[in-house]
Amino acid sequence: MILKTKGNTYDIDAPIIGRVTRFPENIGYEILISENIFSKDWYRFKAVLSTNKIISSLEIPLIHSIKNLDHLNEGDIIIINTDGIVNTIYRVNSNHNFLLFTERCNSNCLMCSQPPKDRDDTEYFFNQYIQAIPLIPKDCLEIGITGGEPTLLGNRFLKLLNQLKEQLPETEIHCLTNGRSFAWENVAQKVGEIDNKRLMLAIPLYADVYHIHDYIVQAKDAFNQTVKGIYNLAKYGQRIEIRIVLHKQTIPRLAKLAKFIYKNMPFVEHIAFMGLEHEGYTSFNIDKLWIDPIDYQEELNDAVTYLSDFGMNVSIYNAQLCTLSENLWEYSRKSISDWKNIYFDECNKCDLLDQCGGMFASGVKKYSNSIKAVSISKLTNL
Amino acid sequence: MVSVIQKKNRKFKEIDYYKNEVSNYFLLPFRFQKINFQKEILVNEVGDFLIVPIGTAEKIILKKISKIDDEELYFDLISNFFISEDPIPILLNVLEARYRTKKSFLEHFTALHIFVISLRCEHTCHYCQVSRVTENKDQFDMSLYNIDEGIKIMMQSPNPYITMEFQGGEALLAFNNIEYAVKRAKEEAILHQKNITFVICTNLAPLSDDMLPFIKEHNIMISSSLDGPAFIHNQNRHRPQRNSYELTIQGLEKCREALGEDNISALLTTTNLSLDYPGEIVDEYVQQGFRNIFLRPISPYGFATYNEKKNKYQTEKFLNFYKTAFDRIIDYNKKGYYIREDYATVILKKILTPFPVGYVDLQSPAGMINNVIVFNYDGKIYASDEARMLAEMNDFTFQLGVLGQSSYNDIFYGEKAMDIAENWTNESLAGCSECAFQAYCGADPVLNYATQGNMYGYRPTNVFCQKNMEIIRYLFNLMEDESIEKIFRSWITGHSE
Amino acid sequence: MKDIIKLNNELHFSLNEEIYSEDVVYKCFYWYGADFNIDINKIDSMFLINITSKLDSINHNELLVKIKQDLIDFKLRDIVTKETKNIRELLIAKAFAHFESDDNPLTEISDPIGFDPTNF
């Protein structure tokens, strides 16, 4: 899936954000994709994109000589940067849209799929989203907020959350955060005051003891801050999801973590156990992280059934059914973003392909030895 | 568009970098107790437990647990709030919230209001010291005046959820008064913005078809009695025609049909006779399609004496009965028939969940007054149902007032209530204060008084203590078997698989 | 434990207060009251314990083993009770002091660019 392309620019002094259309009569849209050399219609738009090579003195913001624009659909929201880079912010035909609020992060997880950058991009992204959010279709079902660590936007984080609530009152907002900022009660309180019942804060908790969690996220005191943050969020009535990535560091105390969550935070709405994604730092740290899923089924089973037995809402993400104990299949969800999800050739022979969580495209780098087609006729429990 | 502010070293560090360097740890409040010859249990202030080899508590307390050599145990103790690396744990707020949650049954105050609507009964059960076989309604039915006054008090409860429970005698003999009381309470509940639930306790013998529409209309729950198969039930529950069992079964069927399974339950009264038939009693409950059974101990008010030996003998006999019946119940569950034992479930909820359990006989502070109050047929107000039984034996120690005369404050915060309160937290009772099972148990000043002559009680010979210590220990032992723990979880959540 | 005297249905011995405090001694022998009459006297820094069975006779050695073990356990319990007294009181006080706000962490939020959560 292409989310980024590049062309040559005319008259672009500041980033331009808008929805694309290929039809000049769609004057409600901001950005026109045109295959003409010139048209008077161009003046009605904030910018024009073209694959043609154009020489212009029109004083119309223009990106030309773009290799390919096939990935853009009617209504997709893009940002055109001054250097000619065109990023897709929102795709109308996807259920997996997310808003990357910042690439900054105060943690540095061993398995981070999107390694943080130490530069202050918060103003840039804030300006991008404050313009993009009103353009998102009102019937959008769900939208993710991700990073980096979104709360590092500070008050701009609150402004964007407020705007999301006003502009998209029917949309589920799923915000990935390390939760540490909420240890400061004022932060939790401010988010609480926004009072968006459709906001879910998804927070990772990797162990029931501080040193393992802190090691995994590579930040001292992170565990205590996250737990305190979860408590503060609960105090202000926020909905919380706990996320646990399954790897060599989280497996040994997984059942104890499950108990810690149920005993100390039974108010969380959902607990997601997630297979390892092979992006970003993971390859670098693969020796510290890799464990074949087939080798942690007992621990996963204990943790999942414990939580489920006590009425907690549990899911398993990013898992292939052939690597999962049969009694855990009911918890497996197809969660991998459409554009990241792949299957192997072997998978085409599998009777459960439709129900399978699949595999991150990056998963081809390292995967379980047990990937194999499942034949329904050989299953006992179905 | 973006400015690079600083370059920071994001080189990965090893796990030891993240372990605090501490010379020693600090203890947090916890209690311990052997549960068998190999194992002891550690229980912290909020009821979380670890089962460990005998001798572990000693090592912990004498600060002999090494962060390096006993790493797994060390961090188990940190994670479960048994020890801390700081004098005041950084996550003390978690423990606070847990403690507050465990005691949150106190928050709303009295929910259950028992109205002894009539003392009359058509049964003459030998263990019942209370009821009267009589037609004399004037003397033994609750007057409309007292009903009104009881409702007034009930509406003053700070609790937004209240339960009005009709007891007897046989409550259905005064069905007209129940109708009056339900309608009246409903009107008042609207005015006072209360959510009200109704329960009728009845042996079902006087149930007639024309009562059912009213019961259904007002969503009244029926709490009935079934003591076991006919030969036990009829022996326990004397009726001239010896047909108590048949009438109960007929009544159960009628109620299930008219009101639905969930609105009818049955209670077991254990008598000396029952103690010889644990299996038969469980079988009977299964045969009648029940999904729960409440193995209640013999009410000590039946055999109440100050005789330590007799009390101890009776308790041991009951515990044998309980365990045999319990094994049978586990068997049924293992075979796929879901049936839970209610007393164990109360305790298991306290052991395995972070939630409070509102069960009046097993709370600290005790359930009497805090969760339950009894308005007797004659207008006298008692701290609990057992307190009323004592009063029937002319002991008015636990009478808190009189309807129409005593104010809400007199009743709930008066001198009597304060006296009882001195003795109703097991945290402050000798023998209980350092008991490992404190968090799972409760305090019962009325029972102490009835069996030992004072509200404080004396634990070494106390029937409440003997019974609960053994049942709790027994449950922990059973839980060593994972398949049984799995059954216990299903009892707690009510999910059957 | 010193000065052990074994009589028919009696057992006498003394305990040094420096080893077993008054709290420990009383909490321990409290539980012996069901089957025994317990007499505790204190002379200087010694507790003199006289135990008389309410039944006919006692197995002195068995009883001594049990008493020694119980004394150790109650001493351990006493250590926990005393060492955790303050934290327990603080816990309960704070638990019931409902919506009082907690202090903010003193630890670092560790953002390389200098995010300050107090500025929210």
From TrEMBL, chain A:
The keyword Lipid metabolism does not apply. SUPFAM superfamilies: Radical SAM enzymes. Keywords: Iron, Iron-sulfur, Metal-binding, S-adenosyl-L-methionine. Its cofactor is [4Fe-4S] cluster. Residues 91-317 form the Radical SAM core domain. InterPro entries: Aldolase_TIM, Radical_SAM_PqqE_MftC-like, rSAM, rSAM_paired_HxsC, rSAM_sf. Coiled coil: none annotated. Signal peptide: none annotated. GO terms for molecular function: catalytic activity; iron-sulfur cluster binding; metal ion binding. Pfam families: Radical_SAM (PF04055). This is His-Xaa-Ser system radical SAM maturase HxsC. It comes from Flavobacterium hydrophilum.
UniProtKB/TrEMBL annotation, chain B:
CDD domains: Radical_SAM. Pfam families: Radical_SAM. Keywords: Iron, Iron-sulfur, Metal-binding, S-adenosyl-L-methionine. One of its GO terms (molecular function) is metal ion binding. It comes from the Bacteria. Residues 117-260 form the Radical SAM core domain. Gene3D superfamilies: Aldolase class I. The keyword Lyase does not apply. Its cofactor is [4Fe-4S] cluster. NCBIfam families: rSAM_paired_1. This is His-Xaa-Ser system radical SAM maturase HxsB. It comes from Flavobacterium hydrophilum.
UniProtKB/TrEMBL annotation, chain C:
It comes from the Bacteria. InterPro entries: HxsD. NCBIfam families: chp_LLNDYxLRE (TIGR03976). This is His-Xaa-Ser system protein HxsD. It comes from Flavobacterium hydrophilum. The gene is hxsD.
